[in-house]
Specification:
315 residues, alpha/beta, Metallo-beta-lactamase, Chain A, 5-stranded mixed beta sheet, 16% strand, globular
């Protein structure tokens, strides 16, 4: 009798492989250990989609004896639930604190879900101000991507934002520092430094393996200056905002060198009064960076926006 079910079982298994497995493989948040008690959830390299719940970024978490410190909360309520399940696969400790490193959608729009579960939301004042300024725009953009999967998402920010550029925290017995080094990918973006372990969660200050994106709100000169200040911490482990976990050399190779290249070449073109369209076309071929994911999608627009920023005297 048992044998009579095997053909059906085999057929179901084949159907699952053909239909279900590709969807399952398309995107999964899996905790990656970066140091004892510290994890990264590495997001996909591509753009925001409904399938990845706009979680095309890295999320981090630290497990303490008193609960979990979550580093960024995702772009939606459903994304936050997905993050919570991933954290739960690594620890039974509840998420007690959520630290926002930045103001872009996938850094904080999952806050509401975690606040409902009793977590404290933590962010610098300057980060919260930017979050509030961009909330409506980000929700509108996300709705076009996520559709019904955005349901229940509310723009919840920290109720007691931290003043200044640097704040020392001790959460669950672990020392952390939330640090602002200058406007970069977004105004008010910060990073989380664990000085005892020398682990740095950079938020969108650092990209590895994929090309960084210069937005209309980015500040390229300030970004490069912030990157140089970040290097003085001499971190042993860097968890970037996007891409694989690495070290300072990898961050320099994939982010620092590109910022240097953008500013050097676009500044020289402006000195020579070279028209924008000619600059974009001339600099479009940059083989030393074409290895980075999304190069073909982002590189030309990065040149364009850097030119416009430097032309108006952006710092």
């Amino acid at each position: 009798m048992v044998h009579s079910f095997r053909p059906l079982t085999s057929l179901l298994a084949v159907l699952w492989l053909l239909l279900g497995a590709p969807a399952a493989r398309a995107f999964a948040l899996t905790p990656t250990v970066v140091a004892p008690g510290m994890y990264a959830l590495i997001g996909p390299m591509g753009m925001r989609t409904a399938q990845n719940d706009a979680l095309n970024c890295n999320i981090g978490f630290v497990v303490t004896e008193q609960g979990v410190v979550l580093i960024d909360s995702g772009a939606s309520r459903m994304g936050a639930e997905r993050i919570a399940r991933a954290v739960g696969s690594a620890t039974d400790q509840p998420i007690r604190w959520v630290i926002n490193t930045g103001s872009q959608d996938h850094r904080w729009l999952g806050n509401g879900y975690f606040a409902e579960q009793g977590a404290e939301i933590i962010a610098l004042q300057r980060t919260v101000e930017t979050q509030k300024g961009y909330a409506d725009q980000h929700l509108a953009n996300l709705h076009r991507v996520l559709g019904e999967r955005l349901a229940g998402t509310e723009p919840v920010t920290a109720t007691a934002p931290l003043a200044g550029d640097q704040s020392h925290l001790n959460l669950g017995g672990v020392d952390l520092e939330l640090i602002f080094l200058g406007d970069a990918h977004f105004p008010g973006d910060a990073m989380l430094w664990l000085p005892q372990q020398r682990v740095l969660f950079t938020g969108d200050l650092v990209y590895t393996d994929r090309l960084l994106g210069v937005l209309s709100s980015s500040r390229v000169r300030s970004w490069r200056a912030a990157f140089e200040r970040m290097k003085t911490l001499e971190p042993k482990v860097i968890v970037p905002g996007h891409g694989s976990v690495g070290d300072l050399a990898k961050a320099q190779h994939d982010t620092g060198d590109y910022l240097d290249w953008l500013i050097e070449h676009v500044s020289a073109a402006l000195v020579d009064w070279e028209p924008l369209d000619e600059v974009v076309e001339r600099l479009a071929d940059a083989p030393q960076f074409s290895r980075l994911a999304n190069f073909d999608t982002l590189h030309r627009s990065n040149i364009n926006r850097t030119y416009l920023e430097l032309e108006r005297g952006g710092d």
